[in-house]
């Protein structure tokens, strides 16, 4: 079945299809591994000049716009879509569309007899990364490593005074750490479109709390950075947890349980394994260490696919139907969260290989920073 879509490349499926940015929305027809894209005069010359993919044919939109103007009154974009489909011999064939396909265009096409069915995911092949894509993610992670080094250096150079963390005579805050990490990432070609997490104390017990205010001494600090490369468009995703000072015995036990859960998950990763079994191995390790799984303790899925989106297929959860394949790039991020003790999460990115997996996150898992 051919696939048909209309969007710009802020839609990650379209970015994947053309391998870069196109500012204005365009039509895409994809069939049997080959694509046709229909571009306006502002975009087509620049795209043709940079396109290196022989499987993509770029066509000017103007002839179809002229044809659409001569047809009956109605939805202008719908008429244009119909003219494109008729010229491609696809107006009488079933088409797969994204769930983001414009509803008014879909209504018009269906009123003219075009059969559309929503495909989710629209481009399932994105779950298996090419060597080039893996290289882009690896590079993004390498830059992110250095941002963590900056965070650790600031924490290391700080001292505790009157139950406050002091850095260069100022109270150290989540905002300051995020500003320093963000500045480094931006200067090295990375954007932070989703907003990083640097939270401490009770905030760290809320997995998606962005973090605000002073860093708490002797309490857990969760740092989750997920920047995107401006050049390649691919994300990194990495989490480390720290304590500045001395952790409580319970927090130290939480950290060891999370680290064990991550290691147990790693042991299972290889082609052909059910993704839910990887999640369940981590959950079993959490339980064996004396912590809860479900509504308390370990309260989220173990991981997710990573690529053009920070969250994409495959899902690594207890209910996942995915089976791991060579080329899947996934996060492994067990965590434990208790308001009275804070939160701990560790997150690495791995790629499934024919022999098992490779950890693309080349960074230590230190917890205590004196």
Compute the separation of the termini in Å: 59 Å
The shape, in one word, is: elongated
Strand content: 15-25%
The CATH architecture of the largest domain: Alpha-Beta Complex
* Class inferred from helices and paired strands: alpha+beta
CATH C-level of the largest domain: Alpha Beta
Number of domains: 2
Cα Rg: 24 Å
CATH superfamily of the largest domain: Creatinase/methionine aminopeptidase superfamily
Biggest sheet features: 6 strands, mixed
Low-pLDDT ranges: none
Question: What's the overall average pLDDT, rounded?
Answer: 96
The number of helical segments is 9
Question: How many β-strand stretches?
Answer: 22
Q: What's the oligomerization state? A: single chain
**CATH fold topology of the largest domain:** Creatine Amidinohydrolase
- The percent range for helix content is 25-40%
What's the arrangement of strands in the largest beta sheet? 4-3-2-1-5-6
Explain this structure to me?
This protein has 370 residues and is an alpha+beta fold. It folds into two domains: 121 residues, Creatine Amidinohydrolase, Chain A, domain 1; 243 residues, Creatinase/methionine aminopeptidase superfamily (Creatine Amidinohydrolase, Alpha-Beta Complex), CATH 3.90.230.10. It contains nine helices and 22 strands. Helix 4 packs across helix 5, helix 6 crosses helix 7 and helix 8 runs antiparallel to helix 9. The termini are far apart.
């Amino acid at each position: 079945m051919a696939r048909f879509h209309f969007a710009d490349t802020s839609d990650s499926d379209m970015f994947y299809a053309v391998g870069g940015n196109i500012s204005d929305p365009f039509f895409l027809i994809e069939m049997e591994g080959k694509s046709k894209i229909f571009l306006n005069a502002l975009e087509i010359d620049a795209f043709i000049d940079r396109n290196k993919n022989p499987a993509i044919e770029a066509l000017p939109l103007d002839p179809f716009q002229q044809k659409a103007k001569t047809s009956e009154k109605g939805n202008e974009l719908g008429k244009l879509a119909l003219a494109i489909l008729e010229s491609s011999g696809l107006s009488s064939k079933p088409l797969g569309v994204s769930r983001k396909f414009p509803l008014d265009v879909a209504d018009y096409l269906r009123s003219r007899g075009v059969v559309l069915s929503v495909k989710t995911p629209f481009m399932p092949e994105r779950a298996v990364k090419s060597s080039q894509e893996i290289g882009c993610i690896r590079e993004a992670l390498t830059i992110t490593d250095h941002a963590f080094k900056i965070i650790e250096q600031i924490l290391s150079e700080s001292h505790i005074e009157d139950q406050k963390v002091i850095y260069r005579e100022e109270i150290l805050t989540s905002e300051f750490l995020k500003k320093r990490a963000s500045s480094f990432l931006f200067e090295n070609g990375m954007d932070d479109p989703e907003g990083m997490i640097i939270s401490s104390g009770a905030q760290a017990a809320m997995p998606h709390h962005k973090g605000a205010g002073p860093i708490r001494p002797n309490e857990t600090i969760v740092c989750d950075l997920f920047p995107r490369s401006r050049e390649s468009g691919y994300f990194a995703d990495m989490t480390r947890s720290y304590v500045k000072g001395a952790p409580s015995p319970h927090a130290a036990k939480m950290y060891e349980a999370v680290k064990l859960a991550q290691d147990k998950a790693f042991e299972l990763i290889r082609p052909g394994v059910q993704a839910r079994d990887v999640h369940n191995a981590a959950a079993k390790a959490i339980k064996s260490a004396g912590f809860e799984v479900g509504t308390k303790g370990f309260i989220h899925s173990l991981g997710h696919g990573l690529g053009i989106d920070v969250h994409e297929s495959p899902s690594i959860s207890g209910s996942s139907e995915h089976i791991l394949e060579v080329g899947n790039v996934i996060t492994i991020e067990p965590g434990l969260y208790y308001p009275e003790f804070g939160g701990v999460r560790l997150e690495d990115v791995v790629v499934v290989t024919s022999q098992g997996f490779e950890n693309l996150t080349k960074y230590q898992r230190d917890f205590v920073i004196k």
